[in-house]
């Protein structure tokens, strides 16, 4: 009888512990639901945002066939240079998983360096054996992305995206006349983009750190056979890594 009573007490303790765990889990779930920030945001069809941007830019250089016959410019090397920008975000939800995002206006201040190794520097033009030419661009862009979103886990979500971009260079120097020290660029550029981002839901806004790779597919070099620093180059394609902090609501 003593053993039977002890077994019944043990079973009662197990049942009581299980009941307490069920009650506790329900309370935790209720608290999590109560602490969910911006719970109605996922029902929005369209919403706006603003992005603060840091970019790291460079050229992809393709040498011209005449480069081998050039006895002055020996080497042309691109360098990575940082820049900054600002963008407006327009997002349209098309399903629980997919969104279309247009970034306009996007204004980027991008800087790209080209370093030349000169065999016969011209002393009258203050040339040295190593010369660096800085190319500045003010890019007004319109990227369009298709976003794929994960499930929302509390106040956190991951998303991936890909798409295309169109850019107009407000600082294009392709029509410059006195351009001996310039590498001239065309006004327009087209490219593809892809990246990943993270949504952090706060009580009044969503903060989204994001990183993307942006590659131009068109040749933006306006080649001039009369310019030493331009004639050695055939094609220039833009390459850019973009870090963004996006605020949405």
TrEMBL record:
Keywords: Signal. The keyword Signal applies. Pfam families: OMP_b-brl_2. This is PorT family protein. InterPro entries: Beta-barrel_OMP_2. Residues 1-30 form the signal peptide. Residues 55-221 form the Outer membrane protein beta-barrel domain.
